[in-house]
Design a protein that fits this description.
Length: 92
């Protein structure tokens, strides 16, 4: 009975968390210039430069901040697909 309970906990809780963490590590490792992202603190921006452990985000026209890669939460919800020619930081 104890073994069955451990198996249920493993497949319902531990394994999905491990898969999600692996996907996030792969996403962070694949960040590149031009990606629209959101940080864990809720800051939206476009990646301007990628270094080893730090990315530089452009959060407004000519306003750039440095953020740890590990603090990038995900791609921006509703961000345009890469390569469609849209760029919200272009100057008119």
């Amino acid at each position: 009975m104890l073994l069955v309970m451990f198996a249920v906990i493993y497949f319902l809780m531990i394994r999905p968390q491990q898969k999600q963490a692996k996907q996030h590590r792969e996403y962070v490792a694949g960040l590149k210039k031009g990606d629209d992202v959101v940080t864990n603190s809720g800051i939206f921006g476009k990646i301007d430069a990628v270094e080893d452990a730090v990315v530089r985000l452009e959060i407004a026209r000519d306003v750039k901040i440095r953020v740890l890669k590990s603090q990038i939460a995900a791609a921006q919800p509703g961000a345009p697909a890469q390569g469609d020619g849209s760029n919200w930081t272009k100057k008119d």
